[in-house]
Write a structure and sequence with these properties.
D-Maltodextrin-Binding Protein, domain 2; 256 residues; 2 domains; five-stranded mixed β-sheet; six-stranded mixed β-sheet; alpha/beta; single chain
Length: 256
């Protein structure tokens, strides 16, 4: 009988521990965010945790991949997209709370190089294929990931896309495109200005004209399954601590 009682107590203890771990996991605020936000969120997350005692779990990837996961029921509380289309799709599917949506940030698109080089004027006269000199142009997925979509739109509007399309090396997200340039695997890449700030080892050759691509906006919103505590983090993203971090990383903050 004593052995049975001991076994039962051990089982209950294990169950209690598991429940405690589950409760801890549930207490986390899960944030799905565009990969280009990594450095800013690396600053913001610990500041929020220190101020509130809440725990954050940040998942970074291409906005398209994150939106699809949320649409399939992934347990995200907050979604920060690198373009409005993916947020719009989730709104249409009823996966976010539209009343919480805010246009948080904007960004710029730049051409970057692996080595120091002279600045160029990005326009229809740019010999981009010549600059590549047989190498690849690193870009995020041009039909799915916002940075790639913006980049293709810019090149198309400037009449440059057809000349370089065969040379484009597509990656799952913009940070992966940046990594190809930083490592020298691709001589040039198209990334956000904020990505260029994140890696001082690359050179910015030029900024794409703002009217060559759709406006780069980062909307943020709570998902329909968000825990109540997540609203506090969404508010924090619009406060002075987050604003300073975003601006240090090259973003333009749109909220007051």
């Amino acid at each position: 009988m004593h052995l049975i009682r001991t076994a039962v107590l051990r089982t209950l203890a294990v169950a209690a521990t598991c429940l405690g771990l589950a409760a801890t996991a549930e207490a986390q605020i899960t944030v799905f965010a565009a990969a280009s936000l990594k450095n800013a969120l690396d600053e913001i997350a610990p500041a929020y945790e220190a101020e509130t005692g809440e725990k954050l779990a940040v998942s970074l990837a291409g906005s398209s991949a994150l939106a699809r996961q949320i649409g399939l029921g992934a347990p995200a509380d907050v979604f920060i997209s690198a373009n409005t289309d993916w947020m719009d799709r989730l709104a249409e599917d009823g996966a976010i709370r539209p009343e919480t949506r805010v246009e948080l940030l904007s960004n710029r698109l730049v051409l970057v190089a692996h080595r120091p080089a002279e600045a160029v004027v990005i326009g229809p006269a740019l010999d981009l294929a010549g600059l590549l000199d047989g190498g690849h142009l690193a870009m995020a997925l041009v039909d799915a990931v916002p940075a790639g979509i913006y980049g293709k739109a810019a090149l198309t509007s400037l009449g440059l896309w057809d000349g370089v399309a065969p040379m484009v090396a597509q990656t799952d997200n913009v940070r992966a495109a940046l990594a190809l340039v930083a490592s020298g695997e691709a001589p040039l890449g198209i990334v956000y200005a904020s990505d260029a700030v994140a890696d001082p080892g690359i050179t910015v050759l030029g900024t794409f004209p703002a009217d060559s691509h759709p406006e780069i906006l980062y909307p943020a919103a709570l998902t329909t399954r968000a825990d109540p505590e997540a609203a506090g983090f969404l508010d924090f993203l619009q406060g002075p601590v987050a604003r300073a971090a975003f601006e240090r990383q090259g973003f333009t903050v749109l909220t007051e």
